[in-house]
Amino acid sequence: QRVAIVPDDFQGFVPRLLKKEGDLIEAGEALAYDKNSTSVVVCSPISGKVEKIVRGERRKILAITIVPDSSKARKTFDVKAIASDPKQALLDAGLWAMFTQRPYGVIPSPDICPRDIFVSCFDSSPLAPSRSLMIESSRHLFEKGVEVLSQLTAGTVYLGCRKEAIVETPHSTTTVYEGPHPAGNAGVQIAQIKPVNKGETVWTIEPETVVKIGGLFTEGYVDYSCIVGITGELVEKPRYVKTT
């Protein structure tokens, strides 16, 4: 019954609000932009009304809570139009904030072209859900997302996989990793196959976001649904749940 956007989830993002309490908002509409890079925005995953701006010390924005409505209104894009400028489309759709730049672990500047882009297709951390479930259930969207990523770098899009769940696309290079956690961490994978040298930057992105990118360039809107694992020793019936 409530959704909250937490600016601290986006490393280096200094929010400046575009909406105030009581405003109506569509899914995919911008809630805030970055003070240091005004073209980078964070969008609402649902349609509804901005209920509250939660602030902490020195009026820092801790969360923006939204009450969903029944309209299901969402921001849409012309697929043919955005294909000519994928970078601007990702900025307008709020998906740029999902990239992480290495080094520093911050949202990358739109003015920088990364040496390579890395996508870890498995999560090796304890009790983590299977990322291959999300990829395989939306394989055509994942492949389209990788194709878009390949247009953002002069280098290579690297997919890191387990040998039992190999993912290959026409626009990427697949590398297989073995061993326990943290083998699934993108930083570990980068260090193993192509370390970042002084003056270079690379980007990382989660496979579920790659699916969202593919959906944007295929269907003209961002689908904010995701799959989470309900698990742990106190859970009687461990299962996957599709949610927003």
Question: Strand pairing plus helix content: what structural class?
Answer: alpha+beta
**SSE pattern:** EEEEEEEHHEEHHEEHEHEE
| Continuous helix count | 6
Q: In what order do the strands lie side by side in the largest sheet?
A: 8-12-9-10-11
Portion in beta strands: 25-35%
Cα gyration radius (Å): 18 Å
Would you report the number of β strands? Answer: 14
Q: Segments where pLDDT lies below 50 for 5+ residues?
A: none
Topology of helices and strands:
Blueprint: E1 3-5, E2 15-17, E3 24-25, E4 30-34, E5 37-43, E6 48-55, E7 61-68, H1 79-82, H2 86-92, E8 100-102, E9 117-120, H3 131-137, H4 139-150, E10 157-161, E11 173-176, H5 186-193, E12 202-204, H6 207-219, E13 226-230, E14 239-243
Parallel strand pairs: 9-10, 9-12, 10-11
Antiparallel strand pairs: 1-7, 2-4, 3-6, 4-5, 6-7, 8-12, 13-14
Helix pairs in contact: 4-6
How would you describe this structure to a colleague?
With 244 residues, the protein is of the alpha+beta class. Helices cover 21% and strands 27% of the residues. It contains six helices and 14 strands. It has helices at 79-82, 86-92, 131-137, 139-150, 186-193, 207-219; strands at residues 3-5, 15-17, 24-25, 30-34, 37-43, 48-55, 61-68, 100-102, 117-120, 157-161, 173-176, 202-204, 226-230, 239-243. The strands form four sheets. The protein has a five-stranded mixed β-sheet with strand order 8-12-9-10-11, sandwiched between helices. Strands 1-7-6-3 form a four-stranded antiparallel β-sheet, with no helix packed on it. A hairpin with a 5-residue loop joins β6 and β7 (61-68). α4 crosses α6. The N and C termini lie close together (11 Å). The model has no long low-confidence stretch (mean pLDDT 96).
